[in-house]
Amino acid sequence: MIMINEQMKNYGNNRSVIRDLFEFGNQKKAEIGAENVFDFSLGNPNVPAPKYVNMAVRNLIDNYDDVYVHGYTSAQGDAACRQAIASDLNERYAAHFRKENFYMTCGAAASLKIILTALYTPGDEVIVFTPYFPEYRVFVETTGAKLVEVSSDPDTFQIDFSLLEEAISANTKSVIINSPNNPSGVVYTEENIIRLAALLEKKEKEYGHPIYLITDEPYRELVYDDIKVPFVTKYYRDTVVCYSFSKSLALPGERIGYILVPDEAADSADVYAAVCGAGRALGYVCAPSMMQHVIEKCCGMVSDINEYKEKRDLIYNALTEYGFSCIHPDGAFYLFVRSPEPDANAFSEKAKEFNLLLVPADSFGTPGFVRIAYCVSTDMIKRSLPAFKKLADYYSQKEGLE
Ligand code: PLP
Hints:
Elements: H1 6-13, H2 17-32, E1 38-39, H3 51-63, H4 66-70, H5 79-93, E2 102-105, H6 107-119, E3 125-130, H7 135-141, E4 146-151, H8 161-167, E5 172-177, H9 190-207, E6 212-216, E7 239-244, E8 257-260, H10 268-281, H11 289-298, H12 305-321, E9 326-327, E10 334-338, H13 344-353, E11 356-357, E12 359-360, E13 369-373, H14 378-398
Parallel strand pairs: 1-11, 3-4, 3-5, 5-6, 6-7
Antiparallel strand pairs: 2-8, 7-8, 9-10, 10-13, 12-13
The structure holds pyridoxal-5'-phosphate.
Pyridoxal-5'-phosphate is lined by residues 43, 107-109, 133, 178, 182, 216, 218, 244, 246, 252, 257.
């Protein structure tokens, strides 16, 4: 008899729909040539890291000894790296963080898994807003806690406060927000962050325990026009930040990010200790050392936002002109498009006939939408537009775009 964990086997066998599309794309590229497949499936940034990032890597390799560059750091992260991040945030947000508030991680996925493991015990509930990053479900359920979905306002994809209030119970341990959002591109307004903070404070008093607000912020700096992303620790005391440099510095394969536990958060020292314990229990040991040294030099820098804005404008303007209904993305690099037929999976299948790879959003908790990751070459976006036009024409001839 083979003794394995069935839950893990299922996670391994049921690949995410995004990965499936990505694999389909690779197969199709081999058949008809990469230039003929318009792959919008993955959030792998195409805009390069600022040149200082590679300069910092070269400088480390050329001028520092191997143990410093490649050796273990302390579990919570290199002190100089954490101090650099604290100083950068203090300057940008008039905050007063210390290096002791930071725990370096292998990206936002690890930040989330660690903080959820640190906080939850079986029976706890965590609230997420649809649409949400599908891995939240895996991260939450493997702690024994329960994921509670709350629908966002269907027109704006901002928080629906009456639904949120109904969903909060005595078991609610935390609420996860992700703004700018993957997959909608929506940024929560300052007014809504203030309302959220007020509601959570009220519920904390009512239930007599903290409700942590976990802000998953890999896209914090990726916003367009004059949009400002409220820095949530300023608005709500019991906030824990999960950050990643995967998107802001275009380093997703380097696996580097952090958890920020502010002093003001309830039981802050215990939460931080539990974060260290969870990192240990999950076997992370320490975040990649070379990248920690790079971040010491480069935190606060961002890939060229104008290039992303050019892509955003190009694809949003074209698709709306063709008749698709799209949520206007103020941040991140995703376009959320209403499926012209009720089943977004069928729409995604139809799009494949035009060699367009669009992710149906059912696993994000929002059926009836597809996600387009436009962090691809501008040239590919331009070449894909005739295919989108044909797809729109197909639906308008069929029954009209809804
Ligand atoms: N959270 C959200 C909302 C994301 O979109 C992603 C990646 O796409 C992650 C977390 C994980 O990011 P990382 O690569 O830093 O682990």
